[in-house]
Amino acid sequence: MSANTYTFTCIGSDAAALARLLALLQVAMQAPDAALPEPLNRFFEYWDEPCVTSASLLGTTLRCTVDTSAHDLLEKPQILAWHASGAEYLRVHVFNSQVGESVTTYYHSGKRITAKAFPKPVLSEGERLYELVLEAKDGALAKEVKAGASSNATADGVPIMVLALRAGLVKSVRALHDAGVDWTACLPWAAEVADLIGACGGNQREAMLSGLLHAPGVDLPALSRLERVARSVSVHPKLLQWLLAQPGVDVNALLVDDHSGQETGSLLFHSVEFFQDRADVLKVLTACGARSVPPAQMSNVERLTCMCRGYRDAQTPAQLAASGVDLETPLWREYPALRMVMRNYMGALGDLRLAQDLLDAGAGVDYWKDPEAFQEEVVEPLLTVYWNEPSNASGKLVSRLDADACQIVIGTMRRVLERGVSAAMEVSLQVDDLETRHEGESPPSACYAGSLLGAVAGLLCVRGSILRPLCLPLVTLLLENGADPHGPCTRNIHLSDRRRIWGGGNWPELHNPWPEGASVLAYLQERQAKAPDPIDAAVIAAMHIWAATTEQGTSGTPALSGPNR
User: Is 433 helix (H, G, I), strand (E, B) or coil?
Assistant: First the structure.
């Protein structure tokens, strides 16, 4: 979406008026949907839903940034409103994202002036450096520090290091560290600083964290209990070992969320979330006698989230359900645990085992009776070839679909269908060849619309596909649950609303013609007549058994069997 981004720089001699403006702008930042108070409503009265994104006051210079629509222009009454509210001099910089151009204009007492006539702000060293932070001039700030500017300068009482970290100025953060910043001044913001060092510290992260922990006056027992500090330090085993050896630091103390003040569990309890159960970190914790201690009080959302993330000591779905936890509790927006697991599935079989446990414990599936949700949250996760599939020496994708993996995929689909989701559901998708995605501007694609049965047997799990081992057992499962092999399927058509799914393997089916409007059974029979294949023969036989049973009017579908099931 195109937009105008306005940056207003106001210089005035009435410090109280500028302070009042700053307070109003900060309120507007915190409540963007609220009605703008006077005089802000006059500043932006001609604009469509303006949004104040930043505001600062350095000495006698007020600066704020406002995002609004690309067609919103600055009118004369707006300029006069700024002047009437304390801005003797006004600089307006506007960037239009639609055309990628920017314009800067200058005003004094409502009249246009030249850039040279606009006074330079009178700033302290800290305010001058903070101005570079506000303008995101990372290189310029780093250059100033290297040239001798104080690494311990402050603006509005906040160290320039904290301000640079908040702005994500990587070069400046490193320059300030190299210049010997006084980490003691950063201790009031220790949790935030430790967290931000992880993003901006680069290969100096451990050294910066060490500087923070070694700062004179630091309270290590208290600091070690802050969740964001513990998280940042835990990925550095040597530093963690040193911290845990300090007097008063308890490896089993409950960590504290510095925002809410709530206790969130011990460091080992958070091992999956903080450091992904790294062996070198676990070795340090084990040597220090660490135990997984959960928080004394946990909401249902927290208990379900711990289960989804695979936390130590997390309860199983059956245990949670038995203790009265509603498995349909939304964890994000309207999505309960089962939907979250499937939406985030990226090939880890442990996630599918968890999905099966949730289904076995009674998690609902009514939302998957909607074709779009079923395709996005069941079909695509189960039948996509993932980016992290292993490759052999030639770079070709190697299937991880061993017998165990196939059983888990089929078992998950079986549970979903047994809970009442229709096997006759239609899908609309675009299949791209993952192995050849780098050849040319886009990978070879095949668009498909029709039954899920046709997508499985005629496209996703065809001969040569990495998913080939799933073909017969999945076809059999779909037939057992009412899928019709005679339903028409369409290939290589234009689909305005389709979902991408990745496939892989020696995959000629992407390019083979599909008879117009033919069923998957007709397609497979034609393909088999030209080039026989044993799995396709078994699939065709299973479909014929289904057809014969249906014609005889037999109630109930007999179990189908065949090789590879």
Answer: strand
Burial class (CB in 10 A: 0-12, 13-18, 19+), 417: buried
- 379: part of which helix (H) or strand (E)? none
pLDDT given for residue 559 in this prediction: 47
Q: Which residues contact 417 (CB under 8 A, 6 or more apart)?
A: 423, 477, 478, 481
The total domain count for the chain is: 2
Residue 9 belongs to some domain of the structure: yes
Gap between the Cα atoms of 108 and 82, Å rounded: 10
Q: Which of 388, 544, 383, 411 is nearest to 468 (CA)?
A: 383
Residue 205 counted as domain residue: no
CA 525 to CA 564: how far, in whole Å? 20
Using CA of residue 463, residue 466, residue 471, residue 472, what is the dihedral sign?
positive
Residue type, 200: C
What is the per-residue pLDDT for 155? 85
Q: Which of 80, 82, 81, 102 is nearest to 93 (CA)?
A: 102
Strands 158-159 and 154-155: antiparallel
pTM of this prediction? 0.71
Q: Taking Cα atoms as reference points, which of 401, 433, 423 lies closest to residue 510?
A: 433
Supply the range of the domain harboring residue 69: 4-122
